[in-house]
């Protein structure tokens, strides 16, 4: 029997990996407290509680963090138009600091010196979990079994884990496992590994779970009006049936339903992990995709051009920091403040259509609009003197004329 090592709080999912880790930690001498985050995934939480207790957990925490996930993590990403490598809406990357923050909170409540997780040694999640833990509790100690040789050499594959589970009374799945891994939260679901590791293989039939195939989705669109205040969605109205949602969680879940029905939010990408390798991921982000397009539109309508250029640069850095696990860094906090400041005038309503896997913007209005219909009209001169454009063009062409004049001289000398 191993020497007692104290209490560890394990980020627990109820699946095979973390169930085996729970028992293994007990073998190493830890008292194990398990923490299961309800962050919007489909899960039998009561069954997971019973399973953890049956496997020897001293205590089980099941914490519903869905509302704070939307308000404190998803909304800042919407304000930023956050997008990693031009395509990924950061569903997992945003969830990890939210989950890990509560993990640290429980460890402090329990007086635990240790926290543990089941993230692999090759992925981003180990970084995201641990940077959050160390930022919020510098003295915490992290147990990461998949980085410990005594663990990963003992369990080099799925078969060894299954054998361990059977010999220790850990329930194993009775239905065949999908040949890929999945991770779900309120914002999205990701699919990777297994047969998906060959980037040439298309997503197999039956993989997608949050969205319908656009080809078989409804033949009539849903038309929505989404209201924003300071860059945050505050109300959605379905123009068809008049239904509305205004609380953050209800609004987001409703958009998930509408987008999922129409097959909106699917991407299949190869991305650059922070640890240095490329990986293939398939993602479904239904509500996030609608909000990305809607916010992009109302922001362009209400924000000064030069401010928006700067803000776009900040959003690029923000997305990189979030992806890499630096949510709780001083630089990311600074960027969130800057981006929030840029959103003070981003207020108004966007009307859009959701149809066959696409989001179509139909119109927008705002009391803070910088659009001047009279000024831009081709039928009214307005407060604009067309003759002034001649000088504007002449000044802007000066640099080009000088550059090409010099290039002509250089070319002549080279030909001599």
UniProtKB/TrEMBL annotation:
<dbReference type="GO" id="GO:0006526">
    <property type="term" value="P:L-arginine biosynthetic process"/>
</dbReference>
<keyword id="KW-0067">ATP-binding</keyword>
<dbReference type="InterPro" id="IPR018223">
    <property type="entry name" value="Arginosuc_synth_CS"/>
</dbReference>
<dbReference type="InterPro" id="IPR023434">
    <property type="entry name" value="Arginosuc_synth_type_1_subfam"/>
</dbReference>
<feature type="domain" description="Arginosuccinate synthase-like N-terminal">
    <location>
        <begin position="8"/>
        <end position="171"/>
    </location>
</feature>
<dbReference type="GO" id="GO:0000053">
    <property type="term" value="P:argininosuccinate metabolic process"/>
</dbReference>
<comment type="pathway">
    <text>Amino-acid biosynthesis; L-arginine biosynthesis; L-arginine from L-ornithine and carbamoyl phosphate: step 2/3.</text>
</comment>
<feature type="domain" description="Arginosuccinate synthase C-terminal">
    <location>
        <begin position="180"/>
        <end position="403"/>
    </location>
</feature>
<dbReference type="GO" id="GO:0005524">
    <property type="term" value="F:ATP binding"/>
</dbReference>
<dbReference type="InterPro" id="IPR024074">
    <property type="entry name" value="AS_cat/multimer_dom_body"/>
</dbReference>
<keyword id="KW-0055">Arginine biosynthesis</keyword>
<comment type="pathway">
    <text>Nitrogen metabolism; urea cycle; (N(omega)-L-arginino)succinate from L-aspartate and L-citrulline: step 1/1.</text>
</comment>
<keyword id="KW-0597">Phosphoprotein</keyword>
<dbReference type="InterPro" id="IPR001518">
    <property type="entry name" value="Arginosuc_synth"/>
</dbReference>
<dbReference type="InterPro" id="IPR048267">
    <property type="entry name" value="Arginosuc_syn_N"/>
</dbReference>
<dbReference type="GO" id="GO:0000050">
    <property type="term" value="P:urea cycle"/>
</dbReference>
<dbReference type="GO" id="GO:0004055">
    <property type="term" value="F:argininosuccinate synthase activity"/>
</dbReference>
<keyword id="KW-0963">Cytoplasm</keyword>
<dbReference type="GO" id="GO:0005829">
    <property type="term" value="C:cytosol"/>
</dbReference>
<keyword id="KW-0835">Urea cycle</keyword>
<dbReference type="Pfam" id="PF00764">
    <property type="entry name" value="Arginosuc_synth"/>
</dbReference>
<dbReference type="InterPro" id="IPR014729">
    <property type="entry name" value="Rossmann-like_a/b/a_fold"/>
</dbReference>
<dbReference type="InterPro" id="IPR048268">
    <property type="entry name" value="Arginosuc_syn_C"/>
</dbReference>
<dbReference type="Pfam" id="PF20979">
    <property type="entry name" value="Arginosuc_syn_C"/>
</dbReference>
<protein>
    <recommendedName>
        <fullName>Argininosuccinate synthase</fullName>
        <ecNumber>6.3.4.5</ecNumber>
    </recommendedName>
</protein>
<keyword id="KW-0028">Amino-acid biosynthesis</keyword>
<keyword id="KW-0547">Nucleotide-binding</keyword>
<keyword id="KW-0436">Ligase</keyword>
């Amino acid at each position: 029997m191993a020497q007692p090592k104290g209490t560890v709080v394990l980020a627990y999912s109820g699946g095979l990996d973390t169930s085996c880790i729970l028992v293994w930690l007990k073998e190493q001498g830890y008292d194990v407290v398990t923490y299961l985050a309800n962050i919007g995934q489909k899960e039998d939480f009561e069954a997971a509680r019973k399973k953890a207790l049956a496997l020897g957990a001293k205590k089980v925490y099941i914490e519903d963090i869905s509302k704070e996930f939307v308000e404190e993590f998803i909304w800042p990403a919407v304000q930023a138009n956050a997008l990693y490598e031009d395509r990924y809406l950061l569903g997992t990357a945003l969830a990890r600091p939210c989950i890990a923050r509560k993990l640290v909170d429980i460890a402090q409540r329990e007086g635990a010196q240790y926290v543990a997780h089941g993230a692999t040694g090759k992925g981003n999640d180990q970084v995201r979990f641990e940077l959050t833990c160390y930022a919020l509790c510098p003295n915490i100690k992290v147990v990461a079994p998949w980085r410990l040789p005594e663990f990963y050499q003992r369990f080099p594959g799925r078969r060894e884990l299954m054998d361990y589970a059977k010999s220790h009374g850990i329930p194993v799945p009775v239905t065949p496992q999908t040949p890929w891994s999945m991770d779900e939260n309120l914002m999205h679901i990701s699919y990777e590994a297994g047969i998906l590791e060959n980037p040439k293989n298309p997503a197999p039939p039956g993989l997608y779970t949050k969205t319908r195939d656009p080809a078989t989705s409804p033949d009539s669109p849903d038309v929505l009006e989404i209201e924003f205040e300071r860059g945050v969605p505050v109300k959605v109205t379905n123009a068809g049936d008049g239904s509305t949602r205004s609380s953050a969680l209800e609004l987001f879940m409703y958009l998930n339903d509408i987008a999922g029905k129409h097959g909106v939010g699917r991407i299949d990408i190869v991305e650059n992990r922070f640890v240095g390798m490329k990986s293939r991921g398939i993602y479904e982000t239904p509500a996030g995709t609608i909000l990305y397009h809607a916010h992009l539109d109302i922001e362009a309508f209400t924000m000064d051009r030069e401010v928006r250029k700067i803000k776009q640069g900040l959003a690029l850095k923000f997305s990189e920091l979030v992806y890499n696990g630096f949510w709780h860094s001083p630089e990311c906090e600074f960027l969130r403040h800057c981006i929030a400041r840029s959103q003070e005038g981003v207020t108004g309503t966007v009307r859009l259509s959701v149809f066959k896997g696409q989001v179509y913007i139909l119109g927008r209005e705002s009391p803070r609009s910088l659009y001047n219909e009279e000024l831009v009209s081709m039928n009214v001169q307005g407060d604009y003197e067309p003759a002034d454009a001649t000088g504007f063009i002449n000044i802007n062409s000066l640099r080009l004329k000088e550059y090409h004049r010099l290039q002509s001289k250089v070319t002549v000398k080279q030909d001599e």
